[in-house]
Fold:
Amino acid sequence: MIQVKVFYFNELRVCCYVVWDETKECVIIDPGCFSDNELSRLVKFVNDNDLKPVKLLLTHGHFDHVMGLADVAHQWNLTTYVHPDDIGQIKRATRYCSMFGWKIKEPDTERIDLQDNQEVTFGNSKLEVIHTPGHTQGGVCFYNEEQNILFSGDTLFAGSIGRTDHPGGNYDQLMKSIRTKIMILPENTTVYPGHGLETTIGQEIKSNPFLQ
Structure:
């Protein structure tokens, strides 16, 4: 059975998720840890729970979601899984951070490309990759059908959707991704977004103003 721990990292409060099952193998989604303290919190949780990180997953390449990419990859010798259309976003992350006065280590470039409908496995569990361009061109969500769990990145939030005014963003494309790929999931699907609190597909169908 999959279990989930969320950390809220950096000044933009990115949700970083540790996801594991009974085997203790885990994946880390969106390592936004900026400070040494934030990295230490992540490492302590993994160690205290005897977890074994095996993969590092990115919902997209925006700088706030990859601030700790280099450190987390090095900590556990992990390869980064990311959609190829967002490699450029990752390469620009250090420059974008510097515009806000933040200095991060150059993100690790060793990677495995994610594709739509691909399965990412860990332990006895699997996550389906759902390509949802619109917030960025390489944005993806990760879905576990057995437990109806979705990690939506910045595609869908509780009561909102991802911004589309950054380079690579496209509002019509994002809405198509949400309506044709995300809203078709079971209404009891728990949604873990890239920022903010968790929600469900059913709740967003009923109350998200962008979906009315």
Remarks:
- The two ends are 34 Å apart (CA to CA).
- The mean pLDDT is 96.
- Residues 36-48 form the longest helix (13 residues).
